[in-house]
User: What shape does this take?
Amino acid sequence: MDEDLTDARTPEEKRATHAGQHPDLRERLDAMSWQCTQEAATERPFTGGYCDEKRPGTYACVACGEALFTSEDKYDSECGWPSFTTPMDDAPVDHRTDTSHGMSRTETTCGSCGAHLGHVFDDGPGPSGDRYCINSACLVLEERIGG
Ligand SMILES: [Zn+2]
Assistant: This one.
């Protein structure tokens, strides 16, 4: 949960910069991926393609391709979204307080391109207690062949 002091831009500013550099982004992403990453929407529970995904590999940001999570840290939380105990070591995942919808939650975004990813809750099973609850639509699994 460290703050990245070298890049003080907000996720919205990062998204605007990234979109300016990649004008094809809207065409490349499907509607749900666009809404989740760029407009901080949340896919409906149990609808995401990676909810029950078990294949080994690396989960990258769908918008910029930055590796963010691995299958080793994914677990079955039964909450309806892919859940991870932690991001990858040194992965650029940003955190900030989100008070929308009458709740106080911790929003996670891609530190590289500002894409909204999901939220962190404190009911995870690992030593940190973190549950990274991430939209499938914000991720791309790069499957690791051979385990
Ligand atoms: Zn990204």
About this structure: Residues 64 and 113 are 6 Å apart (CA to CA).
